[in-house]
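Every protein is a chain of amino acids, and every chain bends into a shape of its own. Below is the pair of lines this work produces for a single protein:
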Amino acid sequence: MDIRELRYFAAVYRARNLTAAARACFVSQPSISTAITNLEAELGTTLFIRHKKGVAPTAAAEQFHALARRIIDETDAARSLFRKPATRTTVTLGLMRTLDVPRTIALLKPLTARSDIALRLVGSDERADARIISKSMLRADEHFVALWSERYVAALPPSHPLTLKDRLRTADLAAAAMIDRCHCEQSEFFGRAAQRRQTAAIAQSEDWAMALVAAGVGIAIVPEGARDRGQGQARGRARLSRISAAGGRAEGLCRKAQEAAQPGSNRAPAWRAQDAWHGTLTARDELRQTQ
């Protein structure tokens, strides 16, 4: 086995899809398939089970991934050990506070892995070269490129009567005690009814909102991906329920419209680096959008 096969294996393990892994690695799908087949033959075990939506890792793949990831990281460290420092361009990236942990990692890794980029993170409302935000936060002079979208769901206390319903309507929440989340689009979700609802608490973060839900304080409106993001008892105890005609939010990359329209050859190094990063992230999130 070689390091390239290990990288392809790690990409498939992460994406759970051969096509998405191939695009993330900028190679053809047959190259990915051949690498996996070679690894399985050399290891004498099956690493992935194929199904309609992609692949599922086997127990052997789960065990092998930790070792493969360590080898990849150590190889990258060895290659940079004696490398002369490159001229680095500072890229200031603004992140909205409700961005979940898995996508934060996926967004930042391609940037932190580059030796020519010095990454600086600020809040979404601070001055930045580019921002990762919900489209509803877009300013008039900015250009927006969507990376993913999510529907809204209701996070319910485990013993709340509304948990007995298969699907909720917005009207079901009119008299319910609600937990508002700072820096989110919850007011937009409720529209004109926003002022009539009962606010039981205001949470500074999605984790705090989910904890208050689990404690029975009230109901929170959260992105659908909250069911897969959380760790800890709070998320495990809150019940997530879909809402009819709830809509959702689009999240993505935004920057000044005038700069985004410049030809690629005339862009500053920071923009060229972000273009390469955006291509990687689009492929990496393709599977999430189809599931």
Summary: Residues 230-235, 282-291 have pLDDT under 50 and may be disordered.
